[in-house]
Amino acid sequence: MLKRNKKFQFLPFIICILIPLIFGAIGGLLTMESVKTWYTTLNKPSFNPPNQIFGPVWSTLYVLMGIASYLVWKQRKNIVGYFWAVTIYFVQLVLNLLWSFLFFYQHQIGFALVEIGVLLLTIIVNAFIFYRINKAAGLLYIPYILWVSFASYLTYSIYILN
C-alpha cells in the first residue's frame, strides 16, 4: 500500500502549475500571429469554436495537468517508475507544443494531424500512468483527453477542407 503524503507544499504546487503554463505560453507565442492571419483564411467546419474559447480552455487544462503532476510528485518516494511518469509527462508537453509549431507556425496541417494522433496516445498513456500512482491525478486528465480528441477531429476536418 502506498504511503500517502498529505502535507500540502505550496512552492512545489506552484512550480508544478507553472511548468505546463510555460509550455502553453510558448505555444501561444507560436500561434498568436497566425491565428489572426493564416488561420482566418482556412476553411473550417461548422463546429469550429470561436478563437476566444481556446485560451481559457487550454489554460484550464494546463492547470489541471499541473495539479495532476503535483499529486504524482508527492508520491515520488513511494513508487517505482517515477522517472517514467515524469518522462511521459514532459514528452506529452513537448508534443503539445510541437502541434502548435507544426499547425500554426509551419502551416503543416497534415503533419500536425499525424502529430496530434501521437499526442493523444501519449496523453492517454500519461493519464494511465498517473492513475496508477494517484487516481485523482489520472482522472484530472479526462478533460485533456476529451479536448485533444476534439482537437484531433477539428484538425482532421481542417485538413480535409483545405
Description:
The protein is mainly alpha-helical and about 160 residues long. The protein has a single domain (about 10-45, about 50-160), classed as Ferritin, CATH 1.20.1260. It is about 80% helix and about 0% strand. It contains seven helices and no strands. Helix 1 (about 10-35) packs antiparallel against helix 3 (about 50-75). The longest helix is centred in the first third of the chain and has 27 residues, at about 10-35. It is elongated, with a radius of gyration of 17 Å. The relative contact order is 0.16. The model has no long low-confidence stretch (mean pLDDT about 95).
Short description:
By secondary structure, this protein is an all-alpha fold. The chain has one domain: TspO/MBR protein (Ferritin).
Give the topology.
Layout: H1 10-36, H2 38-41, H3 51-74, H4 82-105, H5 109-133, H6 135-139, H7 142-161
Helix pairs in contact: 1-3, 1-4, 4-5, 5-7
